[in-house]
Amino acid sequence: MTETGIGVAVRRVEDYRFLTGQGNYTDDINRPGQAHASILRSPHAHARIKGIDTKAARAAPGVIAVFTGADVAADGLGGLPCGWQVTDRHGNPMVEPAHPILVSDTVRHVGDQVAVVIAERRNQARDAADKIVVDYEPLPACVATGAAMAKGSPQVWDEAAGNLCYDWELGDRAACDEAFSKAAHAAKVEIVNNRLIPNAMEPRTAVAEYDRGTGEYTLYTANQNPHVVRLLMGAFVLQIPEHKLRVVAPDVGGGFGSKIHPYAEDAILVWASKKIRRPIKWTADRSESFMSDAHGRDHVSTAELALDADGKFLALKVDTTANMGAYLSTFAPCVPTYLYALLLAGVYTTPVVYCEVKAVFTHTVPVDAYRGAGRPEATYLVERIVDEAARLTGIDRAEIRRRNFIPRDAFPYQTPVVVEYDSGDYQSTLEIALKEADYDGFEARRKASADEGKLRGIGISTYIEACGIAPSAVVGSVGARAGLYESAAVRVNPTGSVSVFTGSHSHGQGHETTFAQLVSEQLGVPFDQIEIVHGDTNRIPFGMGTYGSRSLAVGGSALVKAMDKVIEKGKKIAAHIMEAAVEDIEFKDGSFTVAGTDKSMALAEISGAAYVPHNYPITELEPGLEEQAFYDPLNFTFPGGCHICEVEIDRDTGVVDIASFVAVDDVGRVINPMIVEGQVQGGIAQGIGQALYESCVYDADGQLLTGSYNDYNMPKADLIPNMRVQTHNTLCTHNPLGVKGVGEVGAIGSPPAVMNAVLDALGPLGIHHMDMPATPQKVWAAINGASMPQAAE
Amino acid sequence: MPIAVSMTVNGKAVSGDVEARTLLVTFIREQLGLTGTHVGCDTSQCGACVVHIDGESVKSCTVLAAQADGTDIMTIEGLADGDTLHPMQEAFRENHALQCGFCTPGMVMSAVDLLKNNANPSEQEIREWLEGNLCRCTGYHNIVKAIKACADGAGAR
């Protein structure tokens, strides 16, 4: 281990520019002659557009152009494509409605984009947008997830009868029913996984320009996967060939899934930049972000767990309704299916799992991946019902988990829900966390709180998740419309510095640091001689970007492969120059050495010889020292662990105070422990946000009530506790680094820990169910309802 | 009618014509080209735009450029001493108190003002002071740690 290699808490390369105001976010970019766009959005959840009058807007000061859906149709542009096609239980494809970039006939959610105004200045574009007169015929809206399929519910799409997108199932229903018929106990929960609004701190933003001389378009956009944007938007929406479309995602201020997708605004800007022959910038107001960024979660589920007399899990049955919103966003269909049901075995030996999922359309913002994407929903459901089972059987909550854990010597472990776990040690993560949280001392603390008139609870979550979605052939067979490998190119420059071109994208994760650590470790190159290039389709050959905690597991593996190829070629060059057999060349600590001799050449000498050689095997080997590799993961990786939360509840106010939060996570090999801790802490804060504070609320007409930070309760510094996080790692067995991924574990493991703690605190009052978020109002009402039985029904 | 404004920004005299409705943050970002000050919301809650006006931390989205006429402003670009980071910037780097970096300028400017007002804040005082600065990446844990470290002098190396 070197000072900058694997396992060291190297301080981040990125930080200097961010700390000094020198970051380069998309809204910081200004192009010569740049105009500004404003999007006119629907104020209605559901309305027919009877006419759009843009005359006054066109005549407003500074206005360059106004475009509507009619212009989009006239130019023959396509709609936004969906990247995943789910096949229902009868073998039919999901209902996949059109997703136009500007709507011309019917708006289907508040925030749906209707027109774009382009003006010299941003305020002029907004002022003019206010002058557009849209003649709407408001129609009844379908809003609530649970009511979408009800008879008489307003229809979102004619082609989706009963608002059903797909009706999907996984597992053996008959086997499940059989197991229930023999069960000693059956626990049941009915739970809502609340809709969240991702809220990366940088709003979505884009700058597009068209070069008349070359016919090339450039799009700067706050996005997690610029190559995917180029592929989907170029090929499906705008019909621009890849060599004429450059997509740059420079510094991006957080993503959390919401910046995976190619959005309408990206396409509108690129298209319009050619029409007006000017660069155009658009930056969302936060209010626009609330109503146009893809939302997350939004499941309504019923789950039943069958147990034998000893508390062993026999079968799990799950029935979920998942809200897709008004349109299918890029990965939306796979989130409540393949990223959800495949994790329902959890960390347990439950032999039978049956799950049915109905995806429904509603007149709400599209729902897609948000930090965790499907796995938080699975984890929340499983960990809630395990606690309910413990209550039902009277078995301690830690003990019932121990009895059902997949043993540490059982790996690889085939679950009943398709996936095979490669490694894990659930017993140890639980025991370490119990000790750290002083689980045994809890009852004394509960009593101490009770003496002060407060309610105290402790909650455990032993979770698993799946990262680096894979392998490509398998995901393709279940509906992914693209393979999910990653690429990396490694160029050893003539003087020995190294440039890495990765298809992964960093928007807070610190790849410029961790990927450089991999290079420093493997190639023995000084840290300051390494650059990590990402986020530009003109510089990086190809990439699938960053989501699903895939960067290190997939992108890092591609980087290792590319470096292996560099070393392999370097050995050939070294063998030639040092007049030795290739097999005798060893590479270590940045030098090629002839085994058993003191003959050695540094990597920089070899790279110099590779580019500007005097003595080179030119007839056998291409000059240069640059290699590209693609890596297709063999399996998901499976991080897991244990989160324990302890809360104290004020009976008079209903305020839930987190007294302690402990996390022990298994994330595989750790490249930079400082960054790993930071990822876990940030994820936990989002999970606590979901459990206690955040919720997207629509009224019955489909108006977004939580449309600003006045109404959507973002976790603030004084709402989040100190966290004690540590890792206990087992290595992934199928990728070269042994890494699993850490970006989402915090947001996946923590919500059930918090809610199990809240319900443990409220349990003595007879309160055994509450949906997230456990706001003071909800908790207070439950407490008071509980103490006033006549009002409970 | 454009309004002529002049002020000192990061030690330099600047001036420009603005609309009456132009926000200070817009003037700083778009007319002065100092893009380190960010805009993360439209309700004056996220704090990404915090600058110092006459030595006090202020959300520059909540002030009109015209109101800042004649003031002395410091933005994140003016905080370091040449290439040497301010102790608060150094403490943020040392304690991994930033991830995507978007909230960071406002967070740092706010934290610097906190220590001016309270040289040795408790953890709870730090958390309460930061109520007007949102971060979605860090969970605040390391931000609080960094500010505490800076107050303790550990951030200045």
* CATH fold field value of the largest domain in chain A: Aldehyde Oxidoreductase, domain 4
Strand content of chain A: 15-25%
**How much β-strand is present in the residues of chain B?**
15-25%
Give the class-level CATH name of the largest domain in chain A: Alpha Beta
Low-confidence stretches of chain B: none
State the helical fraction of chain B.
Answer: 25-40%
CATH architecture of the largest domain in chain B: Roll
How many strands, which pairing sense, and closed or not: the largest β-sheet of chain A?
Answer: 7 strands, mixed
Structural class of chain A: alpha+beta
Can you describe this structure?
The complex is a heterodimer of chains A (about 800) and B (about 160). Chain A has about 800 residues and is an alpha+beta fold. Chain A folds into three domains: about 190 residues, Alpha-Beta Complex (Aldehyde Oxidoreductase, domain 3), CATH 3.90.1170.50; about 325 residues, Aldehyde oxidase/xanthine dehydrogenase, molybdopterin binding domain (Aldehyde Oxidoreductase, domain 4), CATH 3.30.365; about 150 residues, Aldehyde Oxidoreductase, domain 4. Helices cover about 30% and strands about 20% of the residues of chain A. In chain A, the strands form seven sheets. Chain A has a seven-stranded mixed beta sheet with strand order 3-5-1-12-9-10-11, with helices on both faces. The longest helix of chain A is centred in the C-terminal third of the chain and has 27 residues. Chain B has a five-stranded mixed beta sheet with strand order 2-1-5-3-4, with helices on both faces. In chain B, helix 2 packs across helix 5. Chain B is built from five helices and five strands, in the order ββαβββαααα. Chain B has about 160 residues and is an alpha+beta fold. Chain B folds into two domains: about 70 residues, Beta-grasp domain (Ubiquitin-like (UB roll), Roll); about 60 residues, DNA polymerase, domain 1 (Orthogonal Bundle), CATH 1.10.150. The mean pLDDT of chain B is about 95. Classes of the chains: A alpha+beta (about 800), B alpha+beta (about 160). Chains A and B meet through helix 1 and helix 17 of A and helix 2, helix 3, helix 4 and helix 5 of B.
